[in-house]
Please model this.
Amino acid sequence: MGMCSRATKLVTLLMALMLIATACGSNEEASESEEPGSATEAASTEPETDTAATEPEETEVEETVTTEPEDTGVSDLEPLDNEKVVVGYVGISKFAALYVAEESGYFDRYGLDVELQKVATGNDIALLMDEGQVDVGAIAITSGVFNSWNDGSELTLFLPAATEPFEGSQTQLLVRSDLAAEIATLDDLLGRTVGIEGGPGSGAEYLLAKVLERGGYTLADVTVETLGRGEASLALEGGLVEAAIAGSPASVAIAAAGTGEALEWGRDFVPGQMTVGYVASPEFLTARPDVAERMALAMALATADLLQGDDRTSTDVVNAVAKYTEKQPEDVKDLPSLFFNPEMVIPVDGFEDVQRVHLANGRLAYDEPFDISSRINVDFAAGAASLASQLTSN
Model:
């Protein structure tokens, strides 16, 4: 009985130890099975955290890529190999961009050898261009140009010049000083002799017609005297005419000399209008577009750099204008009043009005106006203005 009791106790003890061991083993397995589970959870969350952390870095990289083109700058046009361009011009301040581009090296920058030839009138240049002697004409768009277009000429207006100011223009009708009291109003001008440089159908005749339109009059209401370029001052002083149309710098010089006087009704008769521009031969634009493109850009840069604000009256600009208009620098007074548009816009409506007036005065060889836009190419001017803007802003 004692033996059984002890045996029973031993068995009970062994069974207890086995249960304890089994329980410990189960706890270790449970612990091991939980650790991989925790690692899995960490692994599943860590990639999400990493992805979220790297997403802003990817966005920053994309933003950096978009700004790289700005760092590279704008590509300028390559210079050509000393390409010659013959430009015929009428010596007025409205072509200052041409003079400045030549004197300040803008044409040289693009490998252009520009030869400037001064002529008396736009009609003369139109004839020279039709004969192939001139590539580009800086001229008033006269009756000769319109008639040439009507006859099938492919001369093309491709660059703008300066526009008239809305007030304070130096293009004026000047009355002889000793007659200023007698010709005090537009009505007093009727029957008088008025000088115009360039003759019938010229830019000056158009301007005189615009003055007379203010009172409902026409060219038939005055006696028109044709003068040569630069002769207005002598004609007034010598008594050949009683009044004359003149642009600056001639008008300024006449007033300063006391030869003529501009009265209120003889000022600002074409406010904000463009009556002059640069026309090119078809050979120049179609066979040499790379040359035309660089000429346009050179003049757009000259306009943007040197013909805005107070820069218009800088010594270099004034001297360039004086040189090509054959005046003294102190007589170049109209530059602050002229508008040189850096956007190089060619306003069609102004030239349509020129055609209308020449038609009314019987200066054209046709009876019905044609679409003036068919003789204008705005692409060179627009492209030059756009590139010039980019180049000057960098």
Observations:
- The chain has a mean pLDDT of 83.
